[in-house]
Specification:
The protein has 188 residues and is an alpha/beta fold. The protein has one domain (4-187): Dihydrofolate Reductase, subunit A. It has helices spanning 33-39, 46-52, 68-71, 107-116, 129-135; strands spanning 4-10, 15-17, 61-67, 85-89, 100-103, 122-127, 141-146, 155-156, 168-175, 181-187. The strands form 2 sheets. An 8-stranded mixed β-sheet has the order 5-4-3-6-1-7-10-9. A two-stranded antiparallel ribbon has the order 2-8. The longest helix is centred in the middle third of the chain and has 10 residues, at 107-116. The model has no long low-confidence stretch (mean pLDDT 95).
Length: 188
Amino acid sequence: MSSLVYLVATSLDGFIAAPDGDFTPLVVGDEHLAGLAADYPETFPAPMREALGIGAPNRAFGTVLMGARTYQVPGAVPSPYPHLRQVVFSSRALDVPDEVEVVDGDAVAHVRRLKADADGGDLWLCGGAHLAGQLCDEIDRLVLKISPVVLGSGLPLFAGVDPRPRGFRPRGQVDYDNGVRVVTYDRV
């Protein structure tokens, strides 16, 4: 059975982007990129993999899950992760290449089916806030790239989640010189 891993950059105050969806305030330098490339080379989009010379095979994930706003980041290529199965959740029609699957419907049921497919590797939820909120109870692991900035408002890690506690326990953390801290939590 595959696991659902929410690996995402966040601010100190728990926002994955500014109110307009801009995540560039979370980019505080590249000192942590080598560590991420070693552990999760598949999380770099194809143009960035090429620019950084990342040729490593996928290590953790076989599928990437995105909300429509994450998929349609300005300047993004139509197939950002051709080395992964790409699934975009959207209630509106999107113009996507054949290798990008668009799901309009029950995200939880779809993710449960994907998790049952054990030979596909783990599932990487790379964004957005509303999709993370829908899938909150399906997330098995959190990997938070915490940038040393406070945004004050914006898109939260989880949007629209019903207010009840969910437990995670720390699994490990790595601190980088640029102030980025990567913290991993497993569901309790």
